[in-house]
Amino acid sequence: MVSALRGVDIDVRRGELLMIVGPSGCGKTTLISIIAAILDQDAGRCEVVGRDLQRMDPRERAHFRGSSIGFVFQVFNLLPALTAIENVAVPLLIKGVSWKQAESRAREVLQLVGLGHRLGALPAQLSGGQQQRVAIARALVHDPKLIVCDEPTSSLDHETGHAMMSVIRDVAKSPGRAVIVVTHDSRIFEFADRIARMDDGKIVELMGSERREHVQ
Questions:
Q1: Quick check: is 216 in a domain?
Q2: Looking at the 3D structure of the chain, how many domains does it have?
Q3: Does residue 6 lie in a domain region?
């Protein structure tokens, strides 16, 4: 058996944007998948917005993800038969929000990420960067307490990537919210409040404006 994580110990602060960096295969995606209640941990404790994930049954975890977590996948995971506004509205519709309310909120968030002019476009009609922005809008639409982003600028040019990170950083500064970003893109490190460097399944260094801390 291979251990993907080896005793990770970290707190994510409300109101901060934490970036997780490190070489491929070091456990970054596994870590955020556990935090986002997508994967189960084998041991240890993972508490997110005051809830112990290991104490939840599958139904509770699904409800928790739908209400408290926004996840931006690296491969977007947009539904090809739905328009941009319909893709973004999906999390609200699953929660039982009316189409009128879901559409209004989806329109608002798509305008926030600069796609107010492409509401009716299908994913195949959008560029990779535009699809990424739809994925970010979908993660924001239900106003989650924690947003987890896996390589959110991987398909964006420098200017667009910085614009998107400005949006994500503003979201992180909302009261009671936190954002975790996994990235290899050193161009966006400036947006982080802290950077956690991982290697071999562990966090080996925490870097931030207030401190630089090596973790044994």
A1: no
A2: 1
A3: no
State mean pLDDT over 122-145: 90
What six digits make up the tokens of 103? Answer: 């559409």
Q: Tell me how far CA of residue 58 lies from CA of 38, 71, 91, 93, in angstroms.
A: 10, 18, 18, 20
Query: How far from chain centre, in Å, is Cα 150?
Result: 6
Domain carrying residue 64: 17-211
Residue 143, SS3?
A: coil
Long-range contacts at 168-175 (CB < 8 A, ≥ 24 apart): 168/17, 168/136, 169/17, 171/140, 171/147, 172/15, 172/16, 172/17, 172/147, 173/15, 174/15, 175/14, 175/15
Average per-residue pLDDT for the chain: 85
The token pair at 185 is 């893109």
Largest CA distance in the chain: 52
| 181: helix, strand or coil | strand
What digits encode the pLDDT tens for the residues 73-116? 878 889 999 999 999 999 999 889 999 999 999 999 999 888 99
Q: Which residue has the tokens 């964006």?
A: 156
User: Alpha-carbon dihedral of residues 60, 66, 68, 72, nearest 10 degrees?
Assistant: 130
Q: Does 11 reside within a domain?
A: no
